[in-house]
Design goal:
Layout: E1 97-98, E2 104-106, E3 121-122, E4 130-131, E5 137-138, E6 140-144, E7 152-156, E8 159-166, E9 171-177, E10 183-184, E11 190-195, E12 205-212, H1 237-240, E13 245-249, E14 258-263, E15 281-289, E16 406-417
Parallel strand pairs: 1-10
Antiparallel strand pairs: 2-16, 3-7, 4-5, 6-9, 7-8, 8-16, 9-15, 11-14, 11-16, 12-13, 12-15
């Protein structure tokens, strides 16, 4: 897929402090004292910035001091009080399940697998397959473009092999689903697994994709694994909602054995969110993509070459039978003495024919037919009175007519976050 292959909205409330405006009043029963000046206005409250995901907002700036009171008359109040500092933005909320302290997903040992025995092979996904009570756990999923490209996995020697014969221009994939709807792995740096000896990609490209909630279709599994990407329709969900990916091996390159480390920043190309957010992971996908030119091209062999002509019953050679392994049959007796045909076998000289009977003179031994090569039918043997039929001409070599698939056999182990 590529198969795989809206950012989680975070509302932050900015708290704003408001200062009270104080007004000074005085009473003058005699009417001889001037009215008190008005108090200064309160300072403007500062406002803190909203917190990003999992990050507290910055504190607000204190408000400016209020203006001084009116100087006319007595009793004017002092300058207004400074505005209150803005409250810190609230921390972003992440509702994904925290990754357990044990970062190993599986080493394909019985301790980290569920319900699978050594030597088992399967093509349909399991809801529960890998993980332990102290680590992340989940199931597996198979997918492909065309039915003929469907992958298979086999457990052997505490390793897992993904095998597939992928049609030219098609893809196939194998996936680890996470049991939680999404997993917060912000404390990790990336994904790691081991590639074992004997792995081959058959000219396919190997990509690893990480499903994340912001790029997973809301229409794919709305009741169990809802995503935040809202596609135009279900038919276009995997074209509009794409998981960030990284290329492990490109087409035309040889895969090497050893440990593969894929840092989170190396994943990109998601849609609508391009970069990977390890705080909202949903699955790991190993995807194999066969190019339009397919795997290694090999010419197909043609048919058998032409055989020698049969001897004529009246001295006239019969026509050669192209692509047939046997040589000519022995000639029968004739008034002119028919010659005997050879009994040549394909790719070997024919044996001498027996003498004709009933003729004035016995026919001479037939000449062995030449070995046929791959290709089209041989031409007819030439005619001759009393002579052996000549061998048919060899056919030309055949050519390949189909684009070969990419034959994948990928063995891996020790899947873990690091």
């Amino acid at each position: 897929m590529t198969r795989t292959k809206s950012t989680i909205g975070i509302s932050a409330v900015v708290l704003v402090g408001f200062a009270l405006v104080g007004v000074a009043c005085s009473s003058d029963p005699t009417g001889n004292v001037g009215a008190g000046g008005g108090g200064g206005a309160g300072g403007v409250a500062g406002s803190g910035s909203a917190g990003r995901l999992n990050t507290a907002g910055l504190p607000g700036t204190a408000g400016a001091a209020g203006a001084a009171g009116n100087s006319a008359g007595s009793g004017g109040s002092a300058a207004g009080a400074a505005g209150a500092a803005g409250a810190a933005g609230s921390a972003g909320v992440n509702n994904c399940t925290p990754l357990p302290a044990n970062h190993l997903l599986t080493d394909f040992s019985p301790a980290t697998l569920k319900g699978v025995s050594e030597g088992a092979s399967w093509t349909a996904g399991k809801q529960e397959f890998w993980g332990t009570s102290s680590s992340l756990s989940g199931g597996d999923v198979f997918y492909q473009g065309k039915p003929g490209s469907a992958p298979r996995v086999t457990l052997h020697g505490q390793t897992l092999t993904v095998s597939a014969t992928i049609e030219a221009g098609d893809y196939a994939g194998y996936m680890f689903n996470f049991a939680p709807k999404c997993t917060n792995a912000l404390m990790t740096q990336g994904l790691q697994f081991d590639v074992l000896d004997g792995s081959t990609l058959g000219n396919a490209t190997l990509k690893v994709q990480m499903q994340q909630k912001s790029d997973y279709p809301s229409t794919a599994n709305p009741s169990t694994r809802p995503g935040d990407c809202v596609p135009t329709s279900v038919a276009t969900q995997y074209n509009e909602c794409l998981s960030p990916a990284t290329t492990v091996v490109s087409s035309g390159s040889t895969i090497s054995s050893g440990t593969v480390q894929l840092p989170w920043p190396s994943f990109s190309g998601g849609a609508p969110v391009s970069n990977l957010d390890s705080g909202q992971l949903m699955a790991i996908q190993w995807q194999f993509e066969c190019p339009p030119e397919g795997g290694t091209v090999a010419a197909a062999g043609g048919g058998g070459g032409g055989a020698g002509g049969s001897a004529g019953s009246s001295g006239n050679a019969g026509a050669g039978a192209g692509g047939v392994s046997s040589g000519g049959v022995a000639g029968t007796g004739a008034a002119q003495g028919g010659s005997s045909g050879d009994s040549g076998a394909s790719s070997g000289a024919g044996s001498s024919g027996t003498s004709g009977s009933g003729g004035e003179t016995a026919g001479t031994s037939g000449t062995a037919g030449s070995a046929g090569t791959a290709g089209t039918a041989g031409t007819a043997g030439s005619s001759g009175a009393g002579a052996a039929g000549s061998s048919a001409a060899a056919g030309s070599g055949g050519t390949g007519t189909t684009t070969p698939p990419c034959v994948v056999s990928f063995t891996f182990d020790n899947v873990t976050f690091y």
